[in-house]
Amino acid sequence: MNKIQDILEALRRAPDARGAAVVTSDGLIAAAALPAGVEADVVAGLASYLMLTTGRSLQEGGYGPCGRLVLNATHGKAVVVRLEDSYLVALFDQFADVGAAGLRAEQAATQVRDAARLV
């Protein structure tokens, strides 16, 4: 297993976490540790679309780029963090603390950035 995959697997094993993936800005999976029943291509497409459109809206409003997007849904939470030319997507269950989930996702994103520089 490579270093980035190891990081995703470790994040998936964290409390309240359900899965994680690194997706490209054009909606492709680069690496994933997702649970059964979660389609990687759907996660990748949705995350890239949301970050692209949110980023565009923020730029047009003069707020700068979107660095992190947090989604709260009935059955779970998702945290999407901008990397260099890709995004880290972290999925959590509905009971996860948003602050702790965001912190775990940011820490994993930093580890992925560092691992990508070493490649």
Query: CATH first level: which class?
Result: Alpha Beta
Total helical elements:
3
- Main β-sheet, in a few words? 5 strands, antiparallel
| Structural classification | alpha+beta
Query: Which outline best applies?
Result: globular
Q: How many domain modules? A: 1
Helix-strand string: HEEHEEEH
The CATH superfamily appears as Dynein light chain 2a, cytoplasmic
What fraction of the residues are assigned to beta strands by DSSP? 25-35%
CATH structural architecture: 2-Layer Sandwich
Residue ranges: pLDDT <50 for 5 or more in a row?
none
How do you describe this structure in short?
The chain is of the alpha+beta class and 119 residues long. It has a single domain (3-118), classed as Beta-Lactamase (2-Layer Sandwich). It has 3 helices and 5 strands.
Describe the structure in your own words.
With 119 residues, the chain is an alpha+beta fold. The chain has a single domain, classed as Beta-Lactamase (2-Layer Sandwich), CATH 3.30.450.30. Strand 3 and strand 4 form a beta hairpin. The chain is globular, with a radius of gyration of 13 Å.
Task: Itemize the secondary structure elements and their pairings.
Elements: H1 3-12, E1 17-24, E2 29-33, H2 40-60, E3 68-73, E4 76-82, E5 86-92, H3 98-118
Antiparallel strand pairs: 1-2, 1-5, 3-4, 4-5
Helix pairs in contact: 1-3
Notable characteristics:
globular, alpha+beta, Beta-Lactamase, 5 strands, 119 residues, 28% strand
